[in-house]
Design a protein that fits this description.
Blueprint (H helix, E strand, L loop, with lengths): L6 E10 L11 E10 L2 E7 L12 E11 L1 E3 L11 H8 L4 H6 L4 H10 L2 H17 L2 E7 L6 H17 L3 E9 L10 H16 L5 E6 L6 H13 L3 E6 L7 H8 L3 E4 L5 H10 L2 E4 L1 H7 L6 H6 L4 E3 L13 H11 L4 H16 L15 E4 L6 H4 L6 E6 L2 E2 L2
Parallel strand pairs: 1-4, 5-6, 6-7, 7-8, 8-9, 9-10, 10-11, 11-12
Antiparallel strand pairs: 1-2, 2-3, 4-13, 13-14, 14-15
């Protein structure tokens, strides 16, 4: 519709702005309109109060549909080669994720496939996933490395991330995850791999990443190793974040708070003290209900985490092993149906919460100056997202002031 990022969006039955005084409150405007100029939000309010003299803008008439900020998916692994459908079948039959990894499968199977794949294949398969995410309303997405585990492939993954950010109408935020699992070449020398990550791999990757993540868990890296890696990342300007206490409680959530991480993700086994520490540190809890669904593990209690005062975000964790989930509306529905979040909390967590988890302050809310990223639903209100969990409710997606899907 608009090449300039100028657009008048009108006829909105319910507009979610997230522009409330109290964080976590889902502010809404009834019978609303939004003016986008130069790709940014210029004005938000009731349509009857539209300012005079706005000139000749391209118009999107929503015909009484709901609109909200574009979804911010704050945790994905969408760059990978191959798939693990056979492992999924084995897990359904009783195989355990940790055993598959210990036998050289799991993440290591994806590492082998990713190392062997060319850049074009990695970019094309990831672009197809990102286009589906965009069509489902995601306008900002975090993407991690972590299936290379060597200097060349970790760097290549982040180069593909940069290229996708430039080529697709979706903001792609890069995260370095060199410490995903221990690569097989270092099976007998963990310390040498941690040294490699803290030195040559980070040297090659830090210029292409925004934050540094570590999978801190039983089968991956311990708290001491994670602290070393996150500290080395921070020295190169990368904000820390953690895959924390997903499989068991190893102290990763506490480390996230100690180090002032931007986010602590998963948190299946976080204790009450961990939640207090995260709240005090201002670390965002990124919850990933698609993982609990596909792993058939108990869903963490999202209500408990929210009520502890921790800022909550929702994300897909899209990856070939634990959750090949691409769409945020599905994640919102799971969070309401299985994690105890209210629809308002889940929608906030999938928009503003995700933006805070990424430090993307201009995303996830609609007020003057914010990014002109909106989702228009083929439904009268945000409640319909969890209410119709398999509904394909996204009608239009607006990115930087232009209708892109
Ligand atoms: O977030 N837990 C570690 N990393 C991913 C899984 C990646 C994979 O299995 O390929 C996760 O669940
Ligand atoms: Fe993950």
């Amino acid at each position: 519709v608009s090449a300039t990022g100028d657009l008048l969006v009108r006829g909105i039955s319910e507009l979610v702005t997230n522009d409330a005084v109290r964080p976590g409150d889902l502010a809404t405007v009834v019978d609303a309109a939004v003016i986008l100029r130069g790709g940014r939000v210029a004005w938000v309010g009731p349509e009857r109060a539209l300012p005079a003299g706005i000139g000749d803008l391209p118009v999107l008439s929503c015909g009484g549909r709901a609109a909200l900020p574009g979804f911010v998916d704050a945790h994905t692994h969408v760059i990978f080669a191959g798939d693990r459908a056979a492992e999924f079948e084995a897990r359904l039959a009783g195989a355990r994720y940790e055993e598959l990894l210990a036998a050289g499968g799991g993440i290591l199977a994806t590492v082998r496939a990713t190392r062997a794949a060319g850049d074009e294949e990695l970019a094309a398969t990831a672009a197809a996933r990102l286009r589906r995410m965009l069509a489902a309303g995601t306008t900002t997405v975090e993407v991690k490395s972590g299936y290379g585990l060597d200097v060349a492939t970790e760097r290549r993954m982040l180069e593909v991330v940069r290229r996708l950010d430039a080529e697709l109408p979706i903001t792609v935020v890069p995260t370095f995850l060199g410490a995903h699992v221990l690569p097989p070449e270092f099976r007998d020398d963990r310390d040498a791999y941690v040294e490699l990550v803290c030195g040559p791999i980070l040297d090659a990757c830090a210029p292409l990443a925004r934050s540094c993540d570590v999978f801190c868990d039983e089968t991956a890296f311990d708290v001491g190793e994670a602290r070393r890696i996150l500290t080395a990342g921070r020295a190169r300007g990368l904000r820390p974040r953690l895959h924390a206490d997903q499989l068991s409680r190893v102290g990763a959530a506490a480390l996230a708070a100690e180090i002032g991480a931007l986010s602590a993700d998963h948190l299946d086994h976080a204790s009450d003290e961990d939640l207090v520490a995260l709240r005090t540190a201002g670390t965002v809890a990124v919850l990933l209900p698609g993982v609990s669904l596909a792993m058939r593990t108990p869903f963490p209690d999202g209500r408990r985490i929210w009520d502890a005062g921790v800022t909550v975000a929702l994300a897909t964790d899209c990856n070939p092993g634990t959750a090949w989930v691409e769409t945020m509306p599905f994640v919102i529905a799971l969070a309401c149906l299985e994690m105890g979040l209210t629809p308002a909390q889940a929608v906030w967590a999938a928009t503003r919460g995700g933006a805070l988890a990424l430090g993307e302050t201009a995303a996830g809310r609609l007020h003057p100056g914010a990014r002109g990223d909106l989702v228009v639903l083929d439904a009268p209100g945000h409640l319909h997202l969890p209410y119709r969990p398999d509904g394909r409710l996204v009608w239009r997606v607006i990115k930087d002031g232009a209708v892109v899907a």
